[in-house]
Amino acid sequence: MNTPASTLAASVDYTIQLIEKGAQDGATCTPDLVQAPWNFDGGAPSYGPGASMGDVIPVNTPRQGQLPQVYRDASPAELHARIMRAKQMLGDKLVILGHFYQRDEVIQYADYVGDSFQLANAAKARQDAEAIVFCGVHFMAETADLLSREDQAVILPNLAAGCSMADMANIDQVEECWEQLMELYGKEVDEDGRAQVIPVTYMNSSAALKGFCGRNGGIVCTSSNAETVLEWAFERGKRVLFFPDQHLGRNTAKAMGVPLSRMPMWNPNRPLGGNTADEVLDAQVLLWHGFCSVHKRFTVAQIEQARADYPDVRVIVHPECPMPVVDAADEYGSTDYITKAIAAAPAGSTFAIGTEINLVQRLAAEYPQHTIFCLDSVVCPCSTMYRIHPGYMAWVLDGLLDGQVINQITVSDDVAVPARVALERMLAAKPPVAGGGGAVDGAGAGAGAGAAADVTNRG
Ligand code: SF4
């Protein structure tokens, strides 16, 4: 099933074109959005146009070479014909995965649409597929490689599609942090047999960090199961080191009753993360100094404006948003939670959504019985995801037709084995029993915690 024409006509790319031409009111975060991504690949110091363009790409992040001229010159119709031809000829040997935040011009070709973990699992379910083309960002393709068979090739159409948040914590920084923590805490378990600290990494991190967690008694979490995972960690450790997203860590731990005073931030560029030894010793959750540039854009003022414009509005934001925004919203939850809440609402509902614009625009087109808008009125997509363009897709698919695997993402065994351990711990972690005592006292979960995840099969 392809994206309906009405959805494509309401896509973010199309909206940007209209605003640029003056045919529609509105603002974009940068005029660079109208340019093709290859104008930014191969050496640009930032991630390109969109919400994370201000973030600097670390030097060791993969760079994309120049896309062959034929694909840069091709019209949208020519690229469409190439992609459809390859899909037809490759048949079941090919599976295309599209992340919720991907542009509609790419999503229309996806066999499955979902969040990063849903998509990695979808890849696993397609036993016949020899090539998995992941239209997301680098860490997502790595996760798909971790979960897929050895003889399946995972392909990222543009190697420069990284994730600015994932790039805010690298393995050297985390190893260095761990060394300092071990020096301060020691390695002995406490009187209850708990470790001094348990590392927890968000799915939005490199495979190297997932491997670090696997090697050090830690675990992975998603935005759907962060509370369940923190509960798991507190059963096994006195404290948690949570990376790379400070906001998901803070919002989740706060909802579980951890006081803010016991959640110091760890800045990897300062000794002891910029804290005193006493602050680190007293910590219950150490929050890494990382964030998502897309979700950082949402503000309490935007929520107040939405409420003034639509008194009945239901405000739902993603837990990667800053804490004051999450506190001011009616609900918070993962992309899966947001999608299900909209699907279940009575016709005529109004939603102000705090997450990436491509998903919000697509939901607005798919549920015309509701009024759905993005809290941020400025059109500003995830710049890293935006680097996947139909031109790159056509290029890697033509490569497959020629027997060439272009841009394969492979995680080496020394990283993959412990990373799978951390992922398996996550899958085995059970949601907390209502009323049951964990290591953290108090308050209930956020609205999105523990939500089960479904992927959309568009085949
Ligand atoms: S939306 Fe944020 S966390 Fe997600 S891929 Fe983009 S930069 Fe990374």
Automatic annotation (TrEMBL):
It catalyses: iminosuccinate + dihydroxyacetone phosphate = quinolinate + phosphate + 2 H2O + H(+). Belongs to the quinolinate synthase family. Type 3 subfamily. The keyword DNA damage does not apply. The keyword Cell membrane does not apply. InterPro entries: NadA, NadA_sf, Quinolinate_synth_A_type3. Coiled coil: none annotated. Pfam families: NadA. The gene is nadA. Its cofactor is [4Fe-4S] cluster. Keywords: 4Fe-4S, Cytoplasm, Iron, Iron-sulfur, Metal-binding, Pyridine nucleotide biosynthesis, Transferase. One of its GO terms (cellular component) is cytosol. Iminosuccinate binds at H99, S116, Y202, M203, N204, S223, H318, P319, E320, T335. It comes from the Bacteria. Its EC number is 2.5.1.72. Binds 1 [4Fe-4S] cluster per subunit. Its main location: cytoplasm. One of its GO terms (biological process) is 'de novo' NAD+ biosynthetic process from L-aspartate. Pathway: Cofactor biosynthesis; NAD(+) biosynthesis; quinolinate from iminoaspartate: step 1/1. SUPFAM superfamilies: NadA-like. This is Quinolinate synthase.
